[in-house]
């Protein structure tokens, strides 16, 4: 049985839907904090059980009988994130899970200025030391982030942000489908990736000037990209009510992109999908 965590999220839910196209429902289970939110999946034959990484005792029942576990990284950073991932890995080992697939990132690095990247590096280290077979999905940067970065720029016509660098924007939908392909292959005894995968990315790496240009093309409303100093941008965020730790995290994204930590592209995602991944123009056309 394949168990998917985080199945109510932007990645987990479409991943389950993709799995159900490839694997019988009785071979699919989900581990979620609020099972009542997935009553529709239960009605379709998916096993829905409560599991919370913050409550390790809940995971034995949630992971019971799993041949593969899709471990979706938590929406947290720092020691809290790593501790929750460690709890899930420990529970997977205790449950006899055959393979863990972890949603890591193409920019994984213990020294990255973007806080989630060291967390991914620490989690990959835990997996490597766990004794469990694992696959680390080196996912590209979620294209949905561009919508947050654009903010009100479509109305104002001006996109203010610190200096940035190229990013391999990649959609949740494509990454969910690719993970489902790998999991379905695993159920047939195939393991195309052991350890970290190559970068799973969209076709091109684009910076915010490109994002602004494409957004203008899609909407017919030109957007000017304006670079502002790091500290000025951070102070503006805090002045608008963003907590300082969150402002620092967001600033880390720009610093990491300037170092080209998210610039790698490659063919692996397209190979898994059997088609070209959706590019940023296509994503923004669908989203704006």
Automatic annotation (TrEMBL):
The keyword Oxidoreductase applies. InterPro entries: NAD(P)-bd_dom, NAD(P)-bd_dom_sf, NmrA-type_oxidoreductase. Residues 6-144 form the NAD(P)-binding domain. Its EC number is 1.6.5.2. GO terms for molecular function: NAD(P)H dehydrogenase (quinone) activity. Keywords: Oxidoreductase. This is SDR family oxidoreductase. It comes from Streptomyces evansiae. The lineage of its organism: Bacteria, Bacillati, Actinomycetota, Actinomycetes, Kitasatosporales.
């Amino acid at each position: 049985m394949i168990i998917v965590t985080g199945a109510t999220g932007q990645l987990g839910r479409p991943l389950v839907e993709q799995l159900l196209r490839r694997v019988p429902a009785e071979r699919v289970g989900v581990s979620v904090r609020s099972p009542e939110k997935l009553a529709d999946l239960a009605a379709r034959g998916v096993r829905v059980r409560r599991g919370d990484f913050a409550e390790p005792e809940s995971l034995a029942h949630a992971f019971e009988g799993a041949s593969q576990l899709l471990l979706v990284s938590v929406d947290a950073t720092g020691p809290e994130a790593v501790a929750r991932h460690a709890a899930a890995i420990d529970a997977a080992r205790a449950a006899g899970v055959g393979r863990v697939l972890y949603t890591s990132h193409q920019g994984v690095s213990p020294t990255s200025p973007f806080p989630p990247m060291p967390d991914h590096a620490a989690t990959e280290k835990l997996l490597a030391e766990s004794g469990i077979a694992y696959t680390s999905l080196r996912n590209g940067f979620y294209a949905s982030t561009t919508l947050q970065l654009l903010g009100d720029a479509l109305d104002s016509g001006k996109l203010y942000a610190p200096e940035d660098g190229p990013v391999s924007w990649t959609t949740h939908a494509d990454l969910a489908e690719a993970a489902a392909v790998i999991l379905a292959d695993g159920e047939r005894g195939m393991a195309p990736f052991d350890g970290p995968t190559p970068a799973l990315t969209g076709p091109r790496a684009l910076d915010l000037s490109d994002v602004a240009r494409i957004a203008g093309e899609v909407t017919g409303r030109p957007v000017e990209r304006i670079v502002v100093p790091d500290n000025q941008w951070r102070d503006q965020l805090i002045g608008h009510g963003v907590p300082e730790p969150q402002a620092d995290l967001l600033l880390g994204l720009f610093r990491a992109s300037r170092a080209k930590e998210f610039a790698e592209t490659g063919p692996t995602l397209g190979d898994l999908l059997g088609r070209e991944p959706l590019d940023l123009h296509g994503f923004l056309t669908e989203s704006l």
